[in-house]
Input
Amino acid sequence: MGMNTHTEDGMLVLADISGFTEFVTATELEHGPPIIADLLGEVMRRLSPPLEIQEVEGDAVFALGPDRILGPPGVLLHALEEAFVAFRNRRGKLAANDRCSCNACRSIGNLDLKIVAHHGRFLRQMVGDRTQAAGVNVILAHRLLKNGLVGRRAYVLFTEAALRWAGVDPDEAGLVPHTERYEHLGDVRCFVGDVPLGCQDLGVRRGLQLARVDGHGEHAVVTDGPGELDERVVAEARADGLGGGVVHPVRAQERARELDDLGVLGWNAA
Output
């Protein structure tokens, strides 16, 4: 074709900030965009490596990983989890900074992260002096950001093709089936999970207690033993606590110390 093009099979990942439009339209220009850039930077540092950052698209990062260089699926799944953890840790630190009372700095806690992961064939081509990924699967990955998951601000969405590549059983991973339909693309079977997936999986399958605070006023879930996700703890994080950070699973006997470390004011069975 007279162009430097070739096809690849690989993972296509989009990480998108939920609440972006509301945030940038209601906050100061001097602070809003730099905050978004800061948060996206944290996500990019966790996704690459193993992925290659293809583009930054306003409130989203588009990354890809050809099968020939991506390595074991577990490496990518860990990177996705780390992206969520890094995003929330950084969000918490920014929100805890009370030196500025502008709308942007006061609204950081309303932002969250969602990730779409798809696997398929795509075209690599040169556009000017830059490489570009193109093809139906690239279009599909982007379309999946516009989905029917109304009201959910933080999640990871895998297509069936992505899970097949990763060798993940959706039932064992606690993923919920979900189907999207797009014009010209038809029905797309997907699976959706809360985040971070790894923490939830460990909590259920390895007998660890999951202690997590996702943000001020939100809940943490604790387990007393393998498969026992029957006690919910409603937690309120102190201003000097983690501020939206994520705590990795701990053993049940460490519960009292871990709740103290979280900065929980009080907890009640819900």
Notes: Confidence is low (pLDDT under 50) at residues 197-255, 257-270. The first strand starts at residue 6 and ends at 18. The chain has two domains: 6-195, 198-262. Residues 198-262 form one domain.
